[in-house]
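pls design
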């Protein structure tokens, strides 16, 4: 979200002033669209690749997630973040009670009704954001995977609801993709997370390869770090590939988007390998040209396997 929007949201939620009347749906939707379009991540979340009739609903869901994430990360105070996240939870509760007020929840209420989305995925995201205020280290890979169940997997399940295709099998595959994407992001952002006071690489993996807390504190790149990160990259890749069958199980209008999620995550992992796992020195990224190639490659594979041209 643009910095001005962050400031606006913080002011709105910190204020003890009486609530303003709920905005009309059209204005609420435009608010969510601005939040989404103003963020660099929307290539993979609510891009022009999405079916036109689903874009308003993606905007509402993305705005909910984006603002909650900023409330967790942008206040500079864990105690303040927890308070604001509680207020966001209160807004969610009011939305499900039919009393939406904040623009995001006015828009989200329509999406929830149309697609019969339960409250659980939205609440699980808030659990993860609260956890970030209280937990800064994870002992084992299993601890990190448990965090991903709340921090990443609900997003994929929300996409399945929008595709009207949520069931146990698809949810399992979606969870695998979302977990893989989250793990890839953790590997990509080791330096960025460390400078925020957080470490998502499991302590046991680092210790197994002889990477000490002192090395971590000094942001040391050496063979123990390379081996530890390589192990986590392989874990992320396994999760992404395990979820890949979902591409063929979602409606045709979502197939290209899901394929791009997987391909994008795998490309991030390749970028990490490409810098020799030295993510302390540089943050591996995917170029615009490479993204275009991913799009073309995914489009062609879907066209070849289904005999139909994917929607663009």
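designed seq:
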């Amino acid at each position: 979200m643009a910095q001005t929007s962050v400031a606006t949201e913080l002011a709105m939620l910190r204020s003890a002033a009486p609530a303003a009347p709920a905005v009309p749906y059209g204005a609420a939707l435009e608010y969510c669209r601005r939040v989404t379009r103003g963020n660099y991540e929307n290539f993979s979340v609510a891009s022009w690749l999405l079916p036109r009739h689903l874009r308003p609903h993606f905007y509402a869901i993305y705005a909910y997630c984006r603002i909650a994430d900023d409330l967790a990360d942008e206040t500079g105070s864990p105690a303040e973040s927890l308070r604001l996240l509680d207020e966001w939870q209160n807004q969610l509760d009011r939305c499900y009670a039919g009393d939406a007020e904040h623009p995001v929840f006015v828009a989200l209420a329509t999406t929830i009704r149309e697609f019969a989305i339960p409250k659980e995925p939205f609440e699980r995201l808030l659990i993860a954001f609260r956890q970030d205020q209280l937990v800064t280290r994870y002992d084992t890979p299993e601890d990190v995977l448990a965090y991903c169940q709340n921090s990443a997997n609900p997003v994929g399940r929300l996409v399945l609801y929008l595709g009207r295709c949520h069931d146990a099998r698809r949810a399992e595959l979606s969870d695998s993709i979302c977990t893989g994407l989250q793990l890839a992001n953790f590997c990509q952002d080791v330096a960025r997370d460390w400078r925020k006071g957080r470490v998502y690489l499991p302590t046991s993996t680092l210790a197994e390869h002889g990477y000490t807390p002192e090395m971590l504190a000094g942001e040391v790149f050496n063979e123990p770090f390379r081996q530890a990160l390589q192990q986590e990259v392989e874990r992320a890749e396994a999760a992404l590939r395990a979820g890949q069958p979902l591409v063929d199980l979602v409606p045709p209008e979502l197939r290209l988007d899901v394929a791009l999620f997987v391909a994008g995550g795998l490309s991030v992992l390749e970028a990490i390998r490409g810098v020799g796992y030295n993510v302390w020195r540089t943050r591996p990224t995917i170029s615009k040209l490479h993204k275009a190639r991913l799009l073309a490659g995914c489009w062609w594979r879907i066209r070849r396997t289904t005999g139909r041209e994917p929607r663009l």
